Every structure is written in structure tokens, then in C-alpha cells.
Amino acid sequence: MKNTIVTHVDPKSPISESFRNLRTNVHYTNIDKVIKIIQITSSLQGEGKSTITANYGVTLAQSGKKVLVMDCDLRRPQIHKMFSLSNTNGLSNILVGDNLMDKNIKETKIHNLFILTSGPIPPNPAEMLDSKRMRELVDSLKDHFDMILIDSPPVMPVTDGLILSQIVDGTIMVVALGSTEREAYKKSMDALENIGANILGTVINKASSKAGYYVNYEYEYK
Ligand SMILES: Nc1ncnc2c1ncn2[C@@H]1O[C@H](COP(=O)(O)OP(=O)(O)O)[C@@H](O)[C@H]1O
Ligand SMILES: [Mg+2]
Question: Which domain holds residue 107?
């Protein structure tokens, strides 16, 4: 496993603490709703979606929840690399009907944390994510896990993130600090709000270069 998963290798660090704050905030601000499936997205590539999904997944698993991280970025999948897993089989195989769900879900060394990698990159990611089979898959996975985190492609260049926002219970946006990202963030938030996405909040990533690695969680960052 790569050292990028700081919540696993260094649970006492300030970054791990900020992931625990994220976990608590999402949990306590949604007490009246069932939030079981969460999509993590951002407007642009490289803002930290995969990093945050992986660390958030680890943090939830550490709290005793049975967690599935699904790599729904069928364009630039990263989750298998972060957990050093094979990606020969995964979500795309299930969606085309080549594989059964049970065979594809991989265990990790972390207790309670399971992974569904992307599988081979398909030619039509948006269409696959928008399929009946995808909705049925997510529906059946719900019964097997306490929480499902979905890593996704960025919202600005492709529609995948918007499609996924309709399948999940809530969406967490990630924004890396910088003017380009802020502009794109506003446009993506508009697009998500226009289709009625349930936006749970925004993680501001890369907030401090001095700390090296820093996340902060805010609800009304706009
Ligand atoms: N807070 C951070 N501090 C330092 N590097 C980060 C931080 N968040 C992400 N990175 C790095 O930035 C790169 C892009 O992150 P990634 O999670 O793959 O973004 P995305 O999934 O949004 O494309 C990766 O190399 C990752 O390790
Ligand atoms: Mg990614």
C-alpha cells in the first residue's frame, strides 16, 4: 500500500484528525437522512478526489463501519493503485455482465474496508454509469455495507459526475485552492444544483503547502 493513505500509516497526524472531523461533520449534519452512498467529486482533475475518497474510506472503516470504496472514475482510475490491488477485474466487468459482483469486491489489509476497482477502462464510461445495471448494482451493494464511497471523474469536462449524483444519497465536492479551481468549482456547483444533487459539503484541499498535506471541511464554501 502506498504511503499516500496517511490515515492508515499515521492515524495520529493532524491530517488524519481532519479526516475524522470530516467523518463527524457528515455524520452529525445529516442525522435525519439516510446517507449511505456518497460520491466524492470535484470540477477538475488533480484536485484530490481519489486521495480524499481513500482516506475518508479508511477513517470510516477505523470507526467500525463496513465500508466499500468504489472506483467509478472509469477514465483515470486510481483507487487500485493506492491500495496496490489488481485492476484486471472490477466495476466495468460487472457492468457488461462478464463478472459477478461478489467475485470483484476486494478485501484490503484494513479491517472493514473493501474495494471495487474500476476494471478495464471502457470506451463509453458515461453510458455505463447511466445504465440500469449500474443502478441495480449500487442498490444491491447497499445491503452489504454500512457506507459506500464513490470516487468519480471531474464534473467540468465530462457528465459522469452529474450522472452519479443522481444515484447517490449525497455528493461531497473537493476544491483545491487556486483561482482556476474556484471558478470551475462555482460552475460545477451550479450544474450539480441544477439537476437537484444533494451536496453535503465541500472539502478544501491543499489548503496549506507548509503542512504538506492538509484538508479542511466546510459546508458553505462558495
Ligand atoms: N492535500 C494534498 N497535499 C499534497 N498532495 C496532494 C494532496 N491531495 C492530493 N495530492 C496529490 O495530488 C495528486 C492528485 O490527487 P488525486 O487524488 O489523484 O486527484 P483527483 O482524483 O482529483 O484527480 C496526487 O499525486 C495526490 O497524491
Ligand atoms: Mg482521481
Answer: 16-218
